[in-house]
């Protein structure tokens, strides 16, 4: 199990409101995939705007351990000299994916059809998360996994020597599982078919097509059927990473709840498989607009403008939207506390197996801040108190979970008394510039 530095206690409190432009970093999902597919291509892939958060840096390190040449040119520009599909070398040491579920699961898929044995580990959070959801389908290709009970890290995967293509229906709505199977399918001869009943983020499919793989996506009565032809030669790409909507969520939600705010968050990727939060906020009555909508690098992009919205109402979030905003429920629950009436969130069992059990982590912190929350295994309800009526004044545990830490720091910008988190360290996994970005907008967020 890898370590984590000394805790960084942080606090936030109400101030004059947020103003200005918030330039959030590159998309985490797309950054991981750029490095992994770059490492599986032949030749030099150039990546602009890579997220330099710890999760992605751990994936870069792993790609080097497999033999790819990964170089940081500064200013977010990186290059990867790939080793080709099936060209991964057996790493000398353990692959430590830190806090990153996406990193470990995608890399397991990428190596599972090569004849190498790889031991994976991570921090205490990652070592508590389920890996069976990935190792089960990888076993169908012929890979073997040996780990701790319950399919937990540390775990050694021995890749298939004679991989077979598979047909697999993903049993949980998970882009990580879908992607692991597709990446494994790259080095299996013939057609690998993945079926998902609920559409999840489709960055892997889009990027595989961009690298020249033969990939067909069909909407059928069975679900979304993705067919990948194995053993292509992937052509290196020039990738510009759009800015992360999951990071944009924090300054956007802060502006909606902090009195007097008016914030512009430019160049945000609005792929429909990711933009569910913004639709939900608009349905709640948020003053949130998409300015200058356009297409960049095959992804829809717009500038988001968020203004203080004192009259938001609680709503029932459509469960069908869950996958498109799965990482945004923690910060949505904060906004819901400032809306009038209940916000009902159903069909969200996956929240219990993220970096923390996010329903439990948010429910406990919200209650400590004076907000009533009800919960069940796959649902929760936040009873909004309305703007100006949220007490706050609590210290909450971030549980090695960046989104929990950032959500409560956003909350403290509008509660009657300051909010504190015991450890803001995990924020560096996805949003290393969170603190200067927020203070640059005038928010009172600080180490405490
Ligand atoms: O594929 C990805 O990049 C991700 C998929 C989601 O996880 P699941 O696949 O577990 O839902 C999401 O929560 C995670 O932050 C990133
Ligand atoms: C769930 C998340 O990431 P991962 O699964 O990659 O750890 C997240 O970033 O919210």
TrEMBL record:
Region (Disordered): 1-25
Enzyme class: transferase
Known function: Catalyzes the transfer of the enolpyruvyl moiety of phosphoenolpyruvate (PEP) to the 5-hydroxyl of shikimate-3-phosphate (S3P) to produce enolpyruvyl shikimate-3-phosphate and inorganic phosphate.
Gene3D superfamilies cross-referenced by the UniProt entry: Enolpyruvate transferase domain (3.65.10.10)
Active site (record annotation): 327 (proton acceptor)
Organism domain of life: Bacteria
Protein name per its UniProtKB record: 3-phosphoshikimate 1-carboxyvinyltransferase
Alphabetical UniProt keywords: Amino-acid biosynthesis, Aromatic amino acid biosynthesis, Cytoplasm, Transferase
């Amino acid at each position: 199990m890898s370590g984590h530095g000394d805790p960084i206690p942080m606090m936030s409190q109400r101030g004059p409101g947020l103003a200005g432009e918030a330039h959030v970093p590159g998309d985490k999902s797309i950054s991981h995939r750029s490095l992994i597919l770059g490492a599986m291509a032949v030749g030099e892939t150039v990546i602009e705007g890579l997220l330099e958060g710890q999760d992605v840096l751990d994936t870069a390190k792993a790609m080097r351990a497999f033999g790819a040449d990964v170089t940081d040119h500064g200013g977010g520009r990186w290059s990867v000299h790939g080793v080709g599909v099936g060209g991964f070398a057996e790493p000398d040491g353990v692959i430590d994916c830190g806090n990153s579920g996406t990193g470990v699961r995608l890399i397991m898929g990428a190596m599972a059809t090569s004849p190498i044995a790889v031991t994976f580990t991570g921090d205490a959070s990652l070592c508590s998360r389920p890996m069976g959801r990935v190792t089960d389908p990888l076993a169908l290709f012929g890979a073997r996994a040996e780990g701790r009970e319950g399919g937990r890290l540390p775990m050694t995967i021995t890749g298939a020597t004679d991989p077979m293509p598979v047909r697999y229906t993903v049993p949980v709505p998970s882009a990580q599982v879908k992607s692991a199977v597709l990446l494994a399918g790259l080095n299996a001869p013939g057609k690998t078919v993945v079926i998902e009943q609920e559409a999840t983020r489709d960055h892997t499919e889009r990027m595989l097509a961009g690298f020249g793989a033969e990939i067909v996506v069909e909407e059928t009565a069975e679900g979304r059927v993705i067919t990948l032809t194995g053993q292509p030669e992937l052509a290196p790409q020039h990738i510009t990473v759009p800015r992360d909507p999951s990071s944009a969520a924090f300054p956007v939600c802060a502006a909606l709840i902090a009195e007097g705010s008016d914030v512009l968050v430019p160049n945000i990727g609005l792929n429909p498989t990711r933009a569910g939060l913004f639709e939900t906020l608009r349905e709640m009555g948020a003053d949130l607009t998409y300015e200058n909508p356009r297409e960049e690098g095959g992804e829809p992009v717009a500038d988001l403008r968020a203004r203080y919205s004192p009259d938001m109402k609680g709503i029932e979030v459509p469960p069908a939207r869950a996958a498109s905003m799965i990482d945004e429920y923690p910060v949505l629950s904060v906004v819901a506390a400032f809306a009038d009436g209940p916000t009902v969130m159903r069909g969200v069992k996956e929240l219990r197996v993220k970096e923390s059990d996010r329903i439990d982590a948010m429910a406990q912190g919200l209650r400590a801040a004076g907000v009533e929350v009800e919960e069940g295994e796959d649902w929760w309800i936040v009873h909004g108190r309305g703007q100006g009526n949220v007490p706050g004044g609590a210290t909450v545990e971030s549980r090695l979970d960046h989104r929990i830490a950032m959500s409560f720091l956003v909350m403290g910008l509008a509660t009657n008394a300051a909010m504190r988190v015991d450890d803001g360290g995990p924020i560096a996994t996805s949003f290393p510039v969170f603190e200067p970005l927020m203070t640059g907008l005038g928010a009172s967020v600080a180490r405490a």
